[in-house]
Write a structure and sequence with these properties.
- The structure is a single chain.
- The chain is mainly alpha-helical and 178 residues long.
- The chain folds into two domains: 93 residues, no CATH class; 63 residues, no CATH class.
- It contains ten helices and two strands; from the N terminus they run H-H-E-E-H-H-H-H-H-H-H-H.
- A hairpin with a 2-residue loop joins strand 1 and strand 2.
- Helix 2 crosses helix 10, helix 3 crosses helix 10 and helix 7 packs across helix 8.
- The longest helix is centred in the last third of the chain and has 19 residues.
Length: 178
């Protein structure tokens, strides 16, 4: 993914509409939703189309083990790498090279929606490797899987998580509204 496409991707995911989010979450049934009388199915193909991200790469969510080689390019030094391998340090500002730190913050904010904004997890490195052209994953598959899990979790709690991929939901809504 080229630098311009990365910025465009994050820009697209930046918008939100609470009413659209609430309507989509409340009517969600395994990816099928109904908003303002319009029913549609959300698939990875739809996510790929609205985000402009191709479906290339392996299917991945959060269950992958990484080798040290997949991580070391992003880590400041060997001391931090050793801490990370021993699970002693997971903090972005202490561990990640500055150039990648801001990409990681955007990924956490727009893609992974992790509540521990300052901590690095294995899936962050998998996604960083995708953006660094090292190992491709299917970002549409990741987003759809995350959306399914977040909505299922919100419905079980009977509350709508307002960080719930609202930008993605708005993009999908606008796509089907047109």
């Amino acid at each position: 993914m080229e630098k311009g496409r990365v910025a465009n991707f994050f820009e697209k995911l930046h918008g939100f509409d609470r009413e659209v989010t609430n309507n989509m979450v409340n009517s969600w049934n395994n990816g099928k939703v109904k908003v303002n009388g319009v029913s549609f199915q959300i698939t990875k193909e739809v996510v790929a189309e609205v985000t402009g991200i191709p479906m290339e790469g392996s299917k991945f969510y959060r269950d992958k083990k990484l080798s040290s080689n997949a991580v070391k390019e992003f880590v400041k030094n060997s001391v931090e790498m050793n801490k990370l391998e021993k699970k002693e340090s997971f903090y972005v500002t202490e561990t990640i090279k500055k150039i990648w730190r801001y990409v990681l913050y955007a990924l956490i904010d727009y893609v992974t929606l992790d509540p521990r904004f300052d901590q690095v997890r294995t899936h962050h490195f998998v996604i960083l490797n995708h953006f660094h052209h090292k190992k491709r994953i299917s970002i549409p598959f990741y987003l759809l899987t995350s959306l399914n899990k977040e909505i299922s979790s919100s419905k079980k709690k009977a509350t709508v998580n307002l960080a719930l991929h609202e930008g993605l939901l708005l993009l999908i809504h606008e796509h089907f509204k047109a």
